[in-house]
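RECORD TYPE: inverse folding
INPUT: structure tokens
STRUCTURE:
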């Protein structure tokens, strides 16, 4: 039973809770909102994004909100504070919290085999190459696929984005077809060989979608119902869900993509859940939620506040500490994949965790201990425990890029008097 990481997290949390100094605390510098206003408008002027909004809290208090550009240019619809945006993979941390609530309920241990609860994974195989006849060589995993593997992307389940035979098979199964149930999705994924042995590589993919199916099996109720009951209603996230009703459709932002002649054009929004006329059958754990800056800020503040918000406990402090600390099995890791390409980051449970402070003049400013995860439409959020800063930045620019994120993060820290 895996309780070592939780105990270590609790110890780390306790070590940070020192007695207050007898001297008066240093005053927090004033926040220079004009710097963030200018940085956001520069992004619009440069056609880096069509529109967006950013909300920043410090010390549990709002210190900034700004919006610029359009949610839809053709309709001349400005980006507002209540604009609804598809947050894609920012769904993943939310799913992680749902699953960790069930962990706190004692329904599973992190090192439990996934197959104990989802029997379709009882005979999972690992891809080991191709034979002379063009058939896949498959082998048994060196150890069982564990729940913690799903939460740190070491389960070796990809998205099928590559060109290899496993990717081709993943695409052919169409496991993430929104017309399929989570059960059908999970059963489809279980037929696809793993890209590596569990615990040996960071493979970004459908692991969090499997988490959603696992959660509904553990709780004995549909995942969306569980999400509403455990997260959305307790936190008052009234604008967050997998579907936007007709009366709220005017608030939905459109996705924008690069135009051949330069700048941006309105993308094909037919596949974006926020534009759908009906709710998808598949309520994914890895993507699909639609939200606002205020709604997602409530989720982020809950984590920043050690698992509670406005007197409502969602997670215990030690569980949040575990979630937001390094959980990668470095002794068995052979390839760090996309997390290895993110300078100064490791991975916790459903969030990335910064291991170094970066103050270089260019690129993404960051502070050790910060945790975050982005969405495919270039959205992001982050919690910086050291400086007590929490921010949510929404836009709808695809494919994903970090231009706006980097600019906004640096501007926030400059405005707060932390970065030069």
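DESIGNED SEQUENCE:
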């Amino acid at each position: 039973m895996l309780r070592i990481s939780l105990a270590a997290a609790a110890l780390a949390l306790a070590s940070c809770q020192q007695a207050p100094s007898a001297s008066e605390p240093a005053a927090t510098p004033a926040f220079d909102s004009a710097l963030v206003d200018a940085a956001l408008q520069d992004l619009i002027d440069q056609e880096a994004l069509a529109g967006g909004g950013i909300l920043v809290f410090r010390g549990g208090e709002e210190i900034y909100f700004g919006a610029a550009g359009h949610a839809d240019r053709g309709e001349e619809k400005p980006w507002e504070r209540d604009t609804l945006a598809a947050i894609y993979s920012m769904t993943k941390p939310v799913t992680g919290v749902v699953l960790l609530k069930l962990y706190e309920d004692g329904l599973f241990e992190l090192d439990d085999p996934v197959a104990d609860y989802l029997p379709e994974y009882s005979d999972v195989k690992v891809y080991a190459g191709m034979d002379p006849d063009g058939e896949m060589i498959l082998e048994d995993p060196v150890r069982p696929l564990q729940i913690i593997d799903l939460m740190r992307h070491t389960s070796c389940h990809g998205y099928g984005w590559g060109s290899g035979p496993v990717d081709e098979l993943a695409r052919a199964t169409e496991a993430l077809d929104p017309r399929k149930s989570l059960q059908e999705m999970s059963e489809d994924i279980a037929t696809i060989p793993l890209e590596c042995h569990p615990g040996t590589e960071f493979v970004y993919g459908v692991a969090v979608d499997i988490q959603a199916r696992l959660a509904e099996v553990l709780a004995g109720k549909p995942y969306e119902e569980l999400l509403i009951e455990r997260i959305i209603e307790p936190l008052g996230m009234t604008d967050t869900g997998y579907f936007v009703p007709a009366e709220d459709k005017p608030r939905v932002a459109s996705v924008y993509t690069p135009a051949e002649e330069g700048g941006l054009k309105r993308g094909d929004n037919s596949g974006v859940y926020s534009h759908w006329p009906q709710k998808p059958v598949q309520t994914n754990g890895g993507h699909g939620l639609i939200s606002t800056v205020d709604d997602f800020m409530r989720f982020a503040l809950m984590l920043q506040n050690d698992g509670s918000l406005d007197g409502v406990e969602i997670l215990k402090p030690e569980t949040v500490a575990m979630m937001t600390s390094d959980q990668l099995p470095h002794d068995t890791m052979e390839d760090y994949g996309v997390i290895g390409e993110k300078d100064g980051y490791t991975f916790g449970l459903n969030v990335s965790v910064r291991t170094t402070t970066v103050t270089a003049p260019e690129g993404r400013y960051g502070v050790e201990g910060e945790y975050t995860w982005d969405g495919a439409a270039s959205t992001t959020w982050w919690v910086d425990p050291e400086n007590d800063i929490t921010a949510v930045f929404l836009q709808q620019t695809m494919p994903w890029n970090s231009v706006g994120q980097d600019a906004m993060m640096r501007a926030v820290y400059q405005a707060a008097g932390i970065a030069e």
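NOTES: The radius of gyration is 21 Å.
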